[in-house]
Amino acid sequence: MPNIEEKSLVVSEIKEKFQQSSGIVLADYRGLTVAQVTQLRSQLRKAGVEYRVLKNTLVRRAADELGVEGLDPYLKGPTALAFSADPVAPAKILTNFAKENKLKTFQIKAGVLEGKVIGADNVKALADLPSREVLLTMVLRGMQAPLAGMVNVLQGPIRKMGYALEEVRKLKAAQ
Q1: Same domain, 52 and 84
Q2: Cα 129 to chain center, whole Å?
Q3: Is the whole-model pTM more than 0.90?
């Protein structure tokens, strides 16, 4: 049994993870085989997400010390936490993993987004958002469209002048 100092060290480590992460997803990992857990951890690691199984009491204590409210109902039974600086990555990976493997026992319990607790439905909605790169591409396209239109408008008079000069050249050549 770990002593009080070890537990307080773990609590401070969990607090640090909470503060450094924009997105945290809590999941009930029951029913996963060792191979599935290894595969899941590998996918999460590639995306820069840390996945840990932690004691509910220590997570509860860390959340209370940070003022994160509403997490208690989700801290029952086996709980794994996925911490990430990207708020969408853990939600997307865990949700897709559960779908791909057709897991009935693996459940997303809740999430913490920018310090606020969100339910499982909101975590799944977050997972349905396009990736950061796709969103940035969409914004960039939106910014480029008016510029492309303006270039076409500005080229119009130049183009018309070119047509007029061509007609003048044809007239001169015909004479």
Answers
A1: yes
A2: 8
A3: no
- CATH number, residue 110: 3.30.70.1730
The per-residue pLDDT string of the chain (175 residues; one tens digit each, 9 = 90 and over) reads 458 888 888 888 888 888 888 888 888 888 778 888 888 888 888 888 888 888 888 888 888 888 888 888 888 888 888 888 887 888 888 888 887 777 667 788 888 887 788 887 887 877 777 766 777 887 888 777 777 777 777 777 777 878 888 888 888 888 8
Instruction: Kindly state whether residues 78 and 153 are assigned to the same domain.
Output: no
